[in-house]
C-alpha cells in the first residue's frame, strides 16, 4: 500500500514496540485495608495496639502516597517482646527437631501460596519493580525456608556439640526487606532460636505481612515477634537479647558493634559492598555487558552486592564502554508496577540526593546518563562515570543506587590489585573465557562471593557474607548455622554492665619494669646469670622499643627471668611482619603446613621436661600437672597438623547448573591475647589452629606466666616455620590489646583476658569491622574444650565461587 513502510524480520527486531503491561496493586491494597492501613506490633502471636502511640508513615516511593502507618514501639513494648521471646525460647528450643522442621516447611508452603501478594507488597513499599520481586526476591525467600527446614530436621546430628543462643534480634536492610529477613529468620528458627524482627522504617510492610503468615501457620506464640521503631538502642542494648544480626551501611554497622560491645551478645554484620566487576580482554564482551547491567542496576542498584566498580582491561576498555552506553540507552525507568520497566523509583529522596552530591564531586571522568527518566525526587537515571580518578569520592565512598564507575587496568595482576584495594569485600564478578585467569582471579580476590561470568547468583545452600569492612558472618548454607549457635559447654554468666573508659584503656603501662631484683640463687661466691628474654617477630629475636624488661617471679617470689616490655611500636612491627608473610603462608599447600606443625610437635616432645619444669616453677602447679599440660599441647599440635589439609571446603548443591564451591580461607592476620590459666597450653591451643588454617598471628602470652611461650621461639626457629607466621610480644596486656584492636591490618582479635578488656576489644573492633572472639573474663577449660569446630570456625572465613555451565548442554 502506498506510503506504508515495508516490514521485514530485521526491521521488526530493530524497532520493537511495547504496550503498557501494568501489574496490579489491588492485592497489596486489599491487605493494607484489612489492617485499616494501621499496624500495631506483632508480639506473642497477636497484634498489639495501644492508645496515644507515636506513628510513622509508610509511603509509596513511586508517588509518595500514604500506604499505612506503623507505631513507634515504647520501652514497655520492647520489654514485652523480649520477655515473650524468652519464654517461647524455652519451648521452641526443646521441641523435637522434626517438629521445628515441619513448622519451617509450613512457612515455606504458605509463602509459596502467598507469593503474588508478597511480591506486590515488597514492590509497593520499597520501589522495586514487580518483575524483580516476582522472579527473584520472593522465590529466594521461599527457597531459604525449604532449605532450612532440612537443616532443622538434621540439626541434632550435624550440630551435636552446639546449642542455640536464645533471643535473636534481626535488623534487615531496606534494600531487600523480605529476603534479608527470610534468610536470617529461617536459619535462626532452624537452630532453635526465637526471633524479634526490627524492620527498617523505610520498608516495614513486608515484615508485617510475614507476621501475618507466621500467625496463619500457627507458629507457637512468641517464636517470631515483629516490632517497629525508628531507634534500635533499647532493643539492642537489652540484657536479655543474646544474638544480633544486622544488615546495612558500614556506619550503622559500626554503631551496632559499639552498642553491643561487652554485653555478651553474638553479632553478625552484612554491610555495604561497592563490588568490583572485572572484565578481562578474553571476555565475551556482549555477555560481559549484559552482566554489568545486571550487576550495577539490578534492584535499582540498591544492593550490598551491586557491582558499582567496573574494572576493564585497557585493551578492550573503549569497546566495553561504547557497548555499555548503547545497552544502557535501552533501559527504561518508570513506575515499578510496569512490567516493561527495568528500574523503578529509589526508596527515598535522600538516597537520590546522595547520588547527586557524589555526581557533582570532583572525579575527573566523563558522565553518561539514561534519558527519559521521570522528573521526580525519588527517581535517578542509570549513570555511568568512566575515566575517573581512583582517589575520587565517587570511586571510594559508600553509596546505594544505579551509579556505575569505570576505570581501566593493564595486566591481570593490576586488575586484581585494584579490586582488592578497597575497604569493601562482600562480592565480586570476573568476566573472561580464560579458565586459568578466571579461577586464579576468583581465588585471589578478597570477597565473600565471586561469580565467574555471572553476577547476583544466589541460593540458600551457598553462603553470602563479607570480609574487611563489609562485615562478618554468613547467610546461607551450613556455615550460617554457626552464627546462631554456641558450644554446649558455654554456660558462663556473661557480664552485662561493664564500665570501661575507652579513651584511657591501654594507654599507659602498669608493668613493673624495675631491673633490680634479688638473684634467683647463688653457687658459692658466684652469682647465677639471670635470663633475659627477647621479643620474637619476623622470624628473629628483637629487643623491645622501650629497651625495658620486667621480672617474672615464681610463687616463692624468686625471679625466673626478665621479659621484654613490648609496646605499640613492637606490635606494629610484628603486624607488619605477619602481614608480609600472610598471603604466602595461606597459599602454602596443606601438606607442607602439616609437616611444619608435626616438626614443631617433635621438637617440643624432645624438650618436654624443660617446659614442664618451667611451667611448674611459674605457676606452682605440680610436676604431674605441668607435664600433662605440655603433653596435651603436643597432642594439640598433632590434632591441628591433621586439619591442615582436611578443611578446604565443599561443593554446594545449589539451583545453578554449574559448580558452586564454598572455599574455606584464612582470616589473615589474627591478634591473640592469651589467658593466665594454662599459660602454655592456652598459647598452643590458640596458635595451632590459626596457623594450621593459613593465618599469621601476633600473640600476646599470659601476663603472669609468659616464659614458656617466649621460650617457644627456640622451637619455632628450628622447625622450618617461615618468619612472621608466629610473632610473640610481651608487655602490658592492655596496651598491647589496644594496639592490636585498633590496627587496621589485623583482621581478627581473639581475647582471653578480663571482662573490661573484652568490652574494649569489641568496641574498638568497629574501626575496621574486624571479627572478634572474647572470653568476657571467664576462664576457658583448655584441656577439654579447645579443639574441633569452634576453632575451625574462628580460624577461617568462607568464599563462595560460582561457575556457571551451559556451553555444551544448555538445558
TrEMBL record:
SUPFAM superfamilies recorded: ALDH-like
Residue ranges constituting the Aldehyde dehydrogenase domain according to the UniProt record: 47-486, 554-779
InterPro entries: Ald_DH/histidinol_DH (IPR016161), Ald_DH_C (IPR016163), Ald_DH_N (IPR016162), Aldehyde_DH_dom (IPR015590)
Superkingdom to which the source organism belongs: Eukaryota
UniProt GO molecular function: oxidoreductase activity, acting on the aldehyde or oxo group of donors, NAD or NADP as acceptor
Classification via PANTHER family: ALDEHYDE DEHYDROGENASE-RELATED
UniProt name for this protein: Aldehyde dehydrogenase family 16 member A1-like
Organism from which the protein derives: Biomphalaria glabrata (Bloodfluke planorb)
Amino acid at each position: 500500500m502506498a506510503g506504508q513502510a515495508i516490514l521485514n524480520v530485521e526491521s521488526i527486531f530493530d524497532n520493537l514496540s511495547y504496550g503498557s503491561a501494568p501489574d496490579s496493586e489491588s492485592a497489596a491494597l486489599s491487605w493494607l485495608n484489612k489492617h485499616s492501613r494501621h499496624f500495631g506490633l506483632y508480639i506473642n502471636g497477636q497484634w498489639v495496639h495501644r492508645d496515644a502511640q507515636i506513628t510513622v508513615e509508610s509511603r509509596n516511593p513511586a508517588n509518595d502516597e500514604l500506604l499505612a502507618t506503623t507505631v513507634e514501639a515504647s520501652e514497655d513494648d520492647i520489654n514485652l517482646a523480649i520477655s515473650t521471646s524468652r519464654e517461647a525460647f524455652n519451648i521452641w528450643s526443646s521441641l523435637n527437631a522434626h517438629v521445628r522442621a515441619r513448622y519451617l516447611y509450613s512457612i515455606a508452603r504458605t509463602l509459596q501460596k502467598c507469593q503474588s501478594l508478597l511480591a506486590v507488597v515488597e514492590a509497593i513499599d520499597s520501589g522495586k519493580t514487580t518483575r524483580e520481586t516476582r522472579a527473584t526476591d520472593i522465590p529466594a525467600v521461599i527457597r531459604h525456608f525449604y532449605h532450612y527446614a532440612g537443616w532443622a530436621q538434621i540439626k541434632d546430628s550435624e550440630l551435636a556439640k552446639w546449642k542455640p543462643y536464645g533471643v535473636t534480634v534481626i535488623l534487615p536492610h531496606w534494600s531487600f526487606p523480605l529476603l534479608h529477613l527470610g534468610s536470617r529468620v529461617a536459619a535462626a528458627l532452624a537452630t532453635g532460636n526465637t526471633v524479634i524482627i526490627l524492620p527498617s522504617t523505610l520498608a516495614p510492610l513486608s515484615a508485617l505481612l510475614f507476621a501475618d503468615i507466621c500467625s496463619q501457620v500457627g507458629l507457637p506464640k512468641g517464636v517470631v515477634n515483629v516490632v517497629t521503631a525508628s531507634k534500635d538502642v533499647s532493643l539492642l542494648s537489652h540484657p536479655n537479647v543474646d544474638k544480633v544480626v544486622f544488615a546495612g551501611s558500614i556506619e550503622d554497622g559500626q554503631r551496632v558493634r559499639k552498642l553491643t560491645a561487652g554485653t555478651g551478645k553474638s553479632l553478625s554484620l552484612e554491610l555495604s559492598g561497592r563490588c568490583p566487576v572485572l572484565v578481562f580482554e578474553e571476555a565475551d564482551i556482549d555477555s560481559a555487558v549484559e552482566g554489568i547491567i545486571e550487576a550495577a542496576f539490578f534492584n535499582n542498584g540498591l544492593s550490598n552486592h551491586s557491582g558499582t566498580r567496573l574494572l576493564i582491561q585497557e585493551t578492550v576498555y573503549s569497546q566495553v564502554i561504547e557497548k555499555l552506553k548503547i545497552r544502557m540507552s535501552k533501559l527504561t525507568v518508570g513506575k515499578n508496577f510496569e512490567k516493561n520497566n527495568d528500574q523503578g523509583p529509589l526508596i527515598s529522596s535522600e538516597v537520590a540526593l546522595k547520588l547527586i552530591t557524589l555526581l557533582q564531586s570532583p572525579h575527573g571522568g566523563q558522565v553518561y546518563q539514561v534519558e527519559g527518566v521521570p522528573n521526580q525526587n525519588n527517581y535517578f537515571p542509570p549513570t555511568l562515570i568512566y575515566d575517573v580518578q581512583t582517589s575520587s569520592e565517587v570511586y571510594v565512598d559508600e553509596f546505594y543506587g544505579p551509579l556505575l564507575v569505570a576505570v581501566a587496568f593493564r595486566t591481570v595482576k593490576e586488575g586484581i590489585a585494584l579490586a582488592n584495594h578497597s575497604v569493601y569485600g562482600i562480592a565480586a564478578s570476573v568476566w573472561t573465557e580464560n579458565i586459568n585467569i578466571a579461577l586464579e582471579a576468583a581465588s585471589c580476590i578478597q570477597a565473600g562471593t565471586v561469580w565467574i561470568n555471572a553476577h547476583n547468583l544466589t541460593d540458600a545452600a551457598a553462603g553470602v557474607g563479607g570480609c574487611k569492612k563489609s562485615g562478618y558472618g554468613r547467610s546461607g548454607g551450613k556455615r550460617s548455622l554457626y552464627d546462631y549457635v554456641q558450644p554446649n559447654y558455654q554456660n558462663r554468666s556473661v557480664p552485662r554492665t561493664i564500665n570501661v573508659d575507652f579513651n584511657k584503656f591501654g594507654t599507659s603501662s602498669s608493668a613493673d619494669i624495675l631491673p633490680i631484683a634479688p638473684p634467683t640463687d647463688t653457687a658459692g661466691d658466684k652469682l647465677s646469670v639471670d635470663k633475659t628474654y627477647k621479643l620474637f617477630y619476623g622470624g628473629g629475636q628483637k629487643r623491645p622499643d622501650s629497651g625495658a624488661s620486667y621480672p617474672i617471679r615464681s610463687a616463692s617470689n624468686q625471679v625466673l627471668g626478665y621479659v621484654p616490655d613490648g609496646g605499640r611500636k613492637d606490635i606494629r612491627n610484628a603486624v607488619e611482619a605477619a602481614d608480609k608473610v600472610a598471603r604466602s603462608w595461606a597459599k602454602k599447600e596443606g601438606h607442607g603446613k602439616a609437616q611444619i606443625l608435626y616438626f614443631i610437635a617433635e621438637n617440643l616432645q624432645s624438650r618436654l621436661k624443660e617446659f614442664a619444669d618451667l611451667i611448674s616453677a611459674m605457676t606452682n602447679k605440680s610436676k604431674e600437672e605441668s607435664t600433662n599440660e605440655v603433653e596435651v599441647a603436643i597432642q594439640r599440635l598433632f590434632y591441628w597438623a591433621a586439619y591442615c589439609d582436611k578443611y578446604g571446603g565443599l561443593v554446594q548443591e545449589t539451583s545453578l547448573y554449574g559448580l558452586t564451591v564454598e572455599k574455606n580461607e584464612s582470616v589473615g592476620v589474627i591478634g591473640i591475647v592469651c589467658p593466665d590459666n594454662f599459660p602454655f597450653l592456652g598459647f598452643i591451643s590458640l596458635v595451632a589452629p590459626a596457623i594450621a588454617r593459613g593465618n599469621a598471628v601476633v600473640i600476646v602470652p599470659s601476663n603472669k606466666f609468659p616464659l614458656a611461650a617466649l621460650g617457644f621461639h627456640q622451637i619455632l626457629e628450628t622447625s622450618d616455620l617461615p618468619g612472621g607466621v608466629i610473632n610473640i610480644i610481651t608487655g602490658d596486656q592492655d596496651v598491647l590489646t589496644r594496639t592490636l584492636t585498633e590496627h587496621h591490618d589485623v583482621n581478627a582479635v581473639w581475647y582471653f583476658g578480663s571482662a573490661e578488656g573484652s568490652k574494649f576489644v569489641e568496641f574498638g573492633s568497629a574501626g575496621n569491622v574486624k571479627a572478634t572472639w572474647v572470653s568476657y573474663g571467664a576462664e576457658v577449660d583448655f584441656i577439654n574444650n579447645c579443639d574441633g569446630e569452634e576453632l575451625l570456625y574462628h580460624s577461617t572465613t568462607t568464599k563462595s565461587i560460582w561457575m556457571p555451565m551451559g556451553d555444551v548442554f544448555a538445558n
